[in-house]
Here is the input.
Amino acid sequence: MCIMNRLKRYLAASVSVFAIMSQICAAEINLVPVPRKCMERSGTFMLTPDTKICLSPRSDGMMTAVSSWNSLMVSSFGKALAVIPEQNSAGSIRCILTDEIENPEGYRLEVTGSSVTIHARNPAGVFYAFQTLRQLLPPEAENIARDKPADSFSIPCLEIEDSPEFPYRGIMLDAARHFIPKEEVKTCIDIMAFHKLNVLHWHLTDDQGWRIEIKKYPKLTTVGGFRDKTIIGHARGPKPYKWNMSRYGGFYTQEDIKEVLDYAEERFVTVIPEIEMPGHSVAALSAYPEYSCSGGPFEVEGRWGIFNDVFCCKEKTFGFLQDILDEVTALFPSEYVHIGGDECPRVRWDNCTHCQARMKEEGLSSSNDLQIYFMNRIEEYLNSKGKRIIGWDEIMDGDISGRAVVMSWRGEKGGIKAAKNGYDAIMTPNEYMYFNRYQYDPSLEPLANGGFVPLEKVYDYHPVPEILNDEEARHIKGVQANLWTEYITSEDQLEYMLFPRTAALSEVAWSCPENRNYDNFLQRLPLILKHYSAMGINYCRWIFSSREDK
Ligand code: ACM
Ligand code: ZN
Here is the structure.
C-alpha cells in the first residue's frame, strides 16, 4: 500500500467516510469484499438458462474460470450455460482477456440491460468477476435444497472496476487437532472464493494427529492419524484432566488430497500444505520413534499445548523428512510449502548425543542455532525442488535465506522484522487474526481457546504496519486468518468460528483502505448472511448484538 493510501486511511477515519463510500458503492449493491469502484446504472439484466457465455480466448484457463459458475447454474437452472467462442454475442456474458487491466487478478464488469461484459488480464480476474455476479444474484440462486429449477434471475445494471489490495489472502485450517472431512474443506474453499480469498493454508500435521497419507511411511497415518483419548476442556484447567476415551482420528488419502486440489484450482485457491517441524511432531514420532532423541515410545497426544519430544537432528531424520516432502511436493503444485518452525522446546536436544554432536560438527553455539540449522537444511532441500518455504515467525530468530516467507503470528513484530530485512511476510497476528478465539460472550459461545476477536476487530486490522516505509511495506504480501481446531468438534462449529469473520477478513485482504468502513460493511452483511443460509452454512448470529445486550 502506498503512502497516499495510508494517508487516505487516516483521513477517512476522521472525515466523513460515509460520503466517500456512497460514491464508491451504493449500499444496495451488497458486495463483500467491497469493490474498488462501483457505479450503479438503471435497469437489470435477465439471466436465464439460455444465456450464453462467450470466451475470448476459449483457453483452458478461461474454461476453469467459468466452471464453478456453471456448477452453480446447474444447481439453480438445472443446466449449465452454453460456452461459445466470441462471435455474435448479443444477450450473453462476454469474457475478454486484455492487457488493459493491470492487476493480474483485477477485472472490469459491465452489466447492461442487454449483456454482461467482463474484461480481465487473466482468467483469475474473470473468475472474480463471476464471484461478483454470484453475489449480485438473489440468495435463492444458492439454494441447496431447491426442488425445482429457477426460470431466471435479475442482475442490477452497473459498472465495477476491481482489483485486490494484497496478492496473498488466506485462511489456515488446522485439520490436525480435529480432522476436517474433505467435503467440509471444499465448502470452506468455496466460501473463500465467494469472498475472493485465494490461499488455503492446510495444517496437516501436529502432536495430536498426522493427516496426510505418505506412501513410504504408512504408519504416519495408520498410527499417527489416531489418538486413544482427548482431553475434555482446557488443558490449563484444574488437574486431574478429564478425558474423552473414544478413539479419535482420520486422514486424507493422496486421492482425497488431489480431489480437494482440483476443487481449489477451479476456484483459483492455492493450497499450501503445512508439515510441522521440528516441534509439534509427537504424532509422527509415535509412528516412527526412531526419529526422536530418546527413541520413545510415544502416544499420539490427547492434550493441547507444546510438547518436549520433537524431531532429533540426527542425519536419518533429514532423510525421513525429505522422503515425506518428496511426496508432499509431488502432490501440491503450490510454489510454497509451510514447514512450521513454531514452539519447539530444545530440552531433548540439550540432552541428546546426536544433537550435541551435530552442534559440534557444525560449530553451532546454541540450541537456537541448531533449530536454524534444521530449518535451513529443509529449506535448501525444498529450494532444490523449486519450492519456497513459509515458516512461523520463529524462523526470524536466526538467519534464514532471503527466499523464505515469514508468517507473523506473535503480533506484528516478526512481520516487521522480516520486511525491514528484505523478507516477504504474511500478517496473521493472533490478536486480530486468530479465529479460534471467542467473538462474543464466552458464556454464550462454544468452548474456544480464549482471547477475544470480535468481527469489528478483524475488520479494523490493517496488514501494513505504520512503522514500515514504502519499500519495506512492499514485502507485506498479505494477510491470513488462522483457525486452530483444539476445541472445534463439528462442522457447524467450524463454520460458526469462520463466518462471518471471513467476510470481514476479505475486506482487509481485498478492498482498498479508503473504501473500508465498518458501519457500511454491517449494512451489506445481512444479504451475505442470506447467501450463507441458502448455501447451508452456519455462522455466528451474535454479530448484531453488543456483549452488553445479551
Ligand atoms: C501458532 O499459533 N503456534 C503458530
Ligand atoms: Zn537428538
Remarks:
- The chain has two domains: 37-162, 168-519.
- The CA atoms of residues 176 and 393 lie 20 Å apart.
- The longest strand covers residues 37-47.
- Residues 1-24 have pLDDT under 50 and may be disordered.
